[in-house]
Amino acid sequence: MTQRLLRSILFTLLLASFSTFLRAQGTKVWSQSTYEAFERGTPHGVAIRSDGTLDHAAVAKALLTTPADYIWSATADSKGNVYLGTGSPAMVLKVTPDGKLTKLLETKDISVQVVRLGPDGMLYAATLPHGKVYRVNPDSPGIPNEPNGKPVTPSTAVEPTQPVVFDTATLDPKPTYIWDMAFDASGRLYIATGGPAAIYRVDLKQPGAKPEKFFTSQEQHIRCMLFGKDGNLYAGSDGRGLVYRIPPDGKGFVLFESPKREIPALAFDPAGNLYVAALGDKKSTSLPPLNIRGGASVTATITILAPGSIQSSNDNTLIPEGSVIYQLAPDGAPRELWASRDDVIYSLGWSGGTQTNNRQTAGLLAASGNQGHLYRIYSDGTYADVAHLEARQATALAAGANGTEYVATSNTGKLYQLESPTAKASTEKTSEASYTSEIFDAKFFSHWGRAVIQGTGSYDLLARSGNVEQPEQGWSEWEKVTPNAGSLPVPQARFLQWKAVLHPGAQIKQVGIYYLPQNVAPSVDEIVVELHARVNAALNPLQPPTVAITFPSDANNSGIMYAADAASNPLLALRTPYWGTVRWKAHDDNGDHLHYSLYYRGDDETNWLLLAKNISKDYASFDMQRVPDGWYTLRVVASDAPSNPAGDALTGYKDSARFIIDTTPPVLSAITAHEDASGIHVTFDAKDALSTIRRAYYSVDAGPWQYIDPVGKLSDATEEHYDFTIPLPKPDDDANIPAANLQTNPQQHVIAVRAVDSAGNPVIGKIGVQ
Fold it and tell me: pTM of the prediction?
């Protein structure tokens, strides 16, 4: 038995041990113990681990909000400065340790796609779509130098005056995109391009040096690059999802082909393992056109499709088939480390020391969208969601001095600093972390019982309740809760939310909260009555034909879900005279099990009489001959007594439409028949006490029944008169057979008449003609 399974069993038993103080049938438990359940809440300095544990994590402290919609790239220097490449508008921004924001570069391009610090101390910025790389002095005054705390105001973009060290316009063929840059040990700059895919190299030590094509690929784009400790350049592509290992001679070797189409990010750990982010379906290549807003003066037509990760950040509804992260061992052996159907990975980075450290401090950081989550993934395949950022995408990671880590986002463009959960700050809550649960909807006004927690260390639990879905106003205040000891100190209400404050070293694994919803009456929603039909579970081919009993509303589903017996599938019944079947739909919002009773009342009666009780199905058949003929209404009463204590059960009911029970056939009278020149003239009357006369027939000498209309043609009354003439029958060829000793008189005939009322009751009479 695994430790996880054992823990779940023990927690279930713990919950059960506290349930006796509430009513057994009505008590419910809101339990959270899985990663998926905790993901619906909001962590602050709390990691949600894949095993369903809440633990301390780095606090994502928001440093500033930029004037840009997108931050595509970030890098940091040893002085604590962070440099950002943005889009909409396209700028290079410098953020100092004290939060001062300076605009170093602004261009008419759509975006600054990547920024990198060179070994010469200069900052290099690549733009899209004009495909230029600028050398920018990070210590320049900027345009302008904004005061601390004041946002940069975008101005009308002008062509920058910084030196251009690489320009795609000078190349043949001309690439459309610059996706990444990297420096080798000699200080040479490598530039990854797309449309077409290639890697160019520029020797920055030689003024005016022309770029040389270092590596070419048949892929659409080279999306990312980084140098390994072995001196080789590693690159990921968009197209077939290839990872190249490229030695200094530029002769690339495909190290790995991903099942996905795009490799947006790569990272190494200290042990030399290469981590590869992959996304996008190879079968789907028709991505929508690039949709990035540029500055006021930007006019650019991009005909090459951008990678799915870029598309996803601009169209928040597009998730290119989720993401997978692979780990490639130093010998090249791959294994799948992590996968998500909903996240798009934009950036990877190793953080927290070496692999021998505690797993809480060493792992792979993965910046993702489109929910702005930051994951830490460990070498054993477990992971933790360490931050929910206030942006749609976490698009860039940067490692600063003394292990400081930064996260940049898009939609909107913000910069965060990850603070260690044990780091000292200037506030009193220096080492506390908190987690706020999702808002729980009990569906009904509820009494909130005991909170049962499984955790370690010191933590505080708080709760609040309300009767509106959003807690901004009209909710109770946060009240401290003593776990495992009495009901929650919050008002009875429909909605509940809890918050845990974790002190250093604390963990929370599972949370269960008991509650008792207010019981509400069940509802009978629809009734249909079918006469001359009987439900019989033992149908066989020799029995009469079946009839399907359905509801009129089946063609227009109301959205209410019913139990299997009350599903919209037809109920099969046998066509049986003098039996009736009633079928109903009912539901209980509490989810209680229901029993039913069936009553009837005549039009001229005041009392409801019991026809059947304790019915567990959603239908009942009854013998109509038990009930005198007349007009009736059926009442179906639903009770939730099977799921509630005595005295607390509630009922609901619905009445059927009026229907007639008529088991008595019509009466025939005044039957006459005589022969004249045109044939046999017949008259008779048919009368019924309740039902209209629906059909009538005649037969001559036991011949086939022939339909006849009443006088006036319409059969719409309880009494009808019939007057008709029958042609004289032809003599029978077999008549007067001596051997049979048959005596026949061709002038003598027997006329039979038959009438049926609308309830299906038949009557037959006859008369002779001489």
Answer: 0.70
